[in-house]
Amino acid sequence: MTHRPTTLERAYELAREGRCRTVSDIKQALSAEGFDRIQDALYGPTLSAALRKLCQEHYVAPAVDGAGQAADDLAG
Question: Contact at 8 Å (CB) between 15 and 54?
Answer without folding.
Answer: yes
